[in-house]
Amino acid sequence: MLYSDTQAADKKVLMIAGPPSHGPGAHEHNAGILLLQKCLHGMPGLKTEIALNGWPKNPSAFDGVDAVLIYSDGGVKHVALQDSNLEALRRALAKGAGLGLLHYAVEPTLEKGQQEFLQWVGGAFEINWSVNPHWNANFKTLPRHPVTRGVKPFTILDEWYFNMRFVEGMKGVTPLLVATPDASTTSRPDGHHSGNPHVRALVAKGEPVVVSWGFERPDGGRGFGFCGGHFHENWGNDDFRKLVLNAIVWLAKMEVPANGVASKVTAEDLKKNLDPKPGKKTGGERKK
After folding, report:
1. Which range of residues forms the domain containing residue 240?
2. I need a labelling partner for 228 at 20 to 30 A (CA). Which of 72, 82, 185, 282 fits?
3. Does residue 167 lie in a domain region?
4. What's the rounded Cα separation, in Å, for the pair 226 and 71?
5. How many domains does the chain have?
6. Longest Cα separation, the chain
């Protein structure tokens, strides 16, 4: 079902939440999207429409859309990879719409979605290359970019994917969040998502990695990738949240306010709309 926050609007953003997954407090796609919509309420010239628990049932949801944001599981369960959903995205983006992907949604499969995500967002998680450890990322500096307006350096624990696959030469890609992973990120055995020789060498050398980026497509559209978002409580961090809110506005080709999108989130706000997940542990590492 679609839920709309309608104002006198020039721009329309469609935000899609995938169905529940993981334990309580992790991958809270529905609660996360609802919270982002709440934070964008009152943004002049912006209309937000959301689809909860999966892909919009009505194809008209994409009519006149200026940006699409997806917060869902990835891989074979990715909501954009089901049925003919990629084609619906392709049609919207061909008209100039931006595309943002949050957390696990940055991961397509090599067989389906990989080339599209690289073309549309400029980067993607690739199995046997990218990794998904939980670690404290320290973002010491931020580049000058509309998406970083009003965002201060911060440090936060999340499942920050890194060693993403980017377009050749990073052409069109602007790194937005960059941090240096510590030794804990290579503590697991090698696996599809857990480690590989290239990542081990990268971490051993102390090389910084990109965990969020903006992308200017050759066709004039925009893309945004954000590897955080595993823990729902992180939306309570003002800088973490502001970067994503700014990105949504930027994707729709609106002017990001000089100090970024202002919003306030309380402890009570973070408790709202959580999916019922009885009998599961909080925030456990996903199984592949």
Report:
1. 2-271
2. 82
3. yes
4. 10
5. 1
6. 53
